[in-house]
Amino acid sequence: MRKLLGTVLTSAAFALVGTAGSAETLRILTWGGYAPESVVAAFKAETGIDVEVTLSNNEDMISKLRATGGAGFDLAQPSQDRILGPQQEFGIYKPLDLSQIDKEQFIGDLYDASVAATTVDGAAYGVAHIWGVSGFAVDRSVAGDIKTYADLCSADYAGKISMRTKRIALLGFAFAAGEDPFAAYSDPAKYEEIITAAADAMGECKANVKAYWSGADDLLAMMRSGEVVAAEAWDATGFKLNAEDSKWNFVAPSTGALGWIDTFALPAKGENDAAAYQWINFVMRPDIAAQIVNQAGSFSASKGSDEMVDPALRAAYQEAFPPEVIANIKWFPPIPAGLEDIEGRLLDQIVAQ
Amino acid sequence: MREGKLVFWLLFAPFAAWIALLIVIPHIDMLILSLREKVAPRVYETGFRNYADFAATWVYPWTLLRTVVFSIIATVLTFLIGFPVAYYIAKIAQGRTKAALFMLCLLPFWVSEIVRVFGWMLLLRETGLISNALQGLGLTSGPVELLYNDAAILIGLVYTSMLFMIVPLISTIDGMDDALVEAGYDLGGNGWTVMTRIVIPYAMPGIIAGSIVVFMLALGNYLTPTLLGGKSGQWFTAQIYSQFITRFNWELGSAFGFILLATSSALVWLLLRLSGQSLSNTLGR
Question: How does it sit in the membrane (chain B) (predicted)?
Answer without folding.
Answer: Multi-pass membrane protein
